[in-house]
Amino acid sequence: MKNLLLTFSIMLGIGFGLNANTFGFDVPFTLRNNSGKSIFLKIPGVMNPNLSPMSNSGVDLAVGQKIFFFHKGKKYLLLEVDKSFEGKTIKVNELIKERKKELNLKYKKESNKGKRY
Question: Which CATH architecture has domain 25-102?
Answer without folding.
Answer: Sandwich (2.60)
